[in-house]
Design brief:
12 helices; two-stranded parallel sheet; single chain; 2 strands; globular; mainly alpha
Length: 308
C-alpha cells in the first residue's frame, strides 16, 4: 500500500518548462545532438511532469503546518467554551440521567471520579478541549491530507475521489459519535456496576476515565473509515471485490477481536460494536465492486475509441 502511494506521488504534475516560463526555445548550440534523443533528461534531473523528492517533503511540511494551525485555532475556540465542553461532553456520561441511558433503558448509576495525581485535572481539562478541537477541525485536516495526495493521481483516478475528504469526514464523525454515544455509556455502566465484593467501591481516576473515553470514541472513528480506505485502494487498483469476498470469513474474525478489544467483556456490547463493522465491511465490498464496474466501462470506452 505504501509503495503504491509512493509511486502515485512520484507522478505529481509540474508545469512544463516550455509552457511560457520564459525559457529559451532557440536551436541547440553547435555540437549538441539533435533528433529524438536531443531532449532526453539528465540522469540526475527530475523528468518533466515529476516533482523532486525534496519538493514532496516541502509540500508535506506545509500541509502538516496548515493542519496543525487549524487544530490550534479550533482548540482555542473550544477553550473559550471550555466550561460547557468539560461539564457536558466530559462529565455527561458520568451522570445517571445522561440521555443515552434513557434511550437504552439502562438502570444507570452515578459514576464517581477522583483525581489521584497532581496533574490529573489539568490534563483532563486541556485534553478534553484539545480532543474537541481535533474533532471540529477534522474536515480541514482530512482535506489537507487529500490535497497532498491528489496531485499524484491521474485524471481518471481523481474521478470519483474528489469528495473523498467529505466522505472521510462523514464516516469519522459518525464513528466518533458512535463511540461516544454508544460504546462509552455501555462500557462505563458495565464497569461501574461490576463488583466482586461489597467492600470494594468503584471510583474511577479522572485521567484513566478521559483516556478510555478518547480510546472508545476516536478508536471507533478510525474504524469507521474502512469504506473510505477500501474505496481509495480500489481506485488505485490495490484492492478488488474478489479479494474482499474471499477474505470475508477472516475479516469476521478480525472484527470480533477488535470489538472485544474496544468493548467490555460482555456479549451484548461486543455485538453492538461488531454489527456496524460487519455492515461497513459489506459496504466496502459493494463500493469496490462499483469502482471495478466503472473501470471496466472506462476501459471498454477507450477500446472502442481506439478501434474507431
Amino acid at each position: 500500500m505504501l509503495r503504491a502511494l509512493r509511486d502515485k506521488l512520484a507522478r505529481t504534475r509540474m508545469p512544463s518548462p516550455s509552457s511560457g516560463d520564459g525559457a529559451s526555445t532557440g536551436p541547440p548550440p553547435p555540437g549538441l545532438p539533435t533528433g529524438p534523443r536531443a531532449g532526453a533528461p539528465h540522469p540526475h534531473q527530475a523528468q518533466e511532469g515529476e516533482m523532486p523528492f525534496i519538493d514532496h517533503l516541502e509540500e508535506l511540511r506545509w500541509r502538516l503546518i496548515k493542519a496543525l494551525a487549524v487544530v490550534v485555532v479550533s482548540s482555542a475556540v473550544c477553550l473559550v467554551f471550555a466550561e460547557w465542553v468539560v461539564d457536558t461532553l466530559l462529565m455527561g456520561p458520568t451522570r445517571a440521567d445522561f440521555f443515552m441511558y434513557r434511550a437504552f433503558r439502562l438502570d444507570a448509576v452515578e459514576i464517581v471520579l477522583q483525581n489521584r495525581t497532581i496533574t490529573g485535572q489539568f490534563f483532563a481539562y486541556f485534553g478534553t478541549v484539545l480532543a474537541t478541537g481535533i474533532l471540529i477541525a477534522s474536515p480541514l485536516v482530512i482535506y489537507q491530507f487529500w490535497k497532498f495526495v491528489e496531485p499524484g493521481l491521474y485524471p481518471d483516478e481523481k474521478k470519483g475521489l474528489r469528495f473523498s475528504a467529505v466522505f472521510a469526514t462523514f464516516f469519522f464523525v459518525v464513528g466518533v459519535s458512535f463511540g461516544y454515544l454508544v460504546l462509552t455509556p455501555l462500557a462505563l455502566q458495565f464497569f461501574a456496576q461490576f463488583s466482586i465484593s461489597e467492600q470494594i467501591i468503584n471510583e474511577f481516576d479522572i485521567a484513566r476515565y478521559l483516556s478510555m473515553v478518547l480510546t472508545w470514541s476516536f478508536g471507533a472513528g478510525f474504524l469507521f473509515e474502512l469504506p473510505v480506505v477500501v474505496f481509495f485502494l480500489s481506485k488505485l487498483g490495490i484492492v478488488t471485490p474478489q479479494v474482499l469476498r474471499t477474505g470475508r470469513k477472516y475479516a469476521m474474525i478480525v472484527i470480533l477481536i477488535v470489538a472485544a478489544f474496544f468493548t467490555p467483556p460482555d456479549p451484548m456490547s461486543q455485538l453492538i460494536m461488531a454489527l456496524p463493522l460487519f455492515l461497513l465491511y459489506e459496504l466496502s465490498i459493494r463500493l469496490a465492486a462499483a469502482v471495478e464496474r466503472g473501470q471496466l466501462r472506462e476501459a471498454a470506452k477507450e477500446a472502442a475509441r481506439g478501434q474507431a
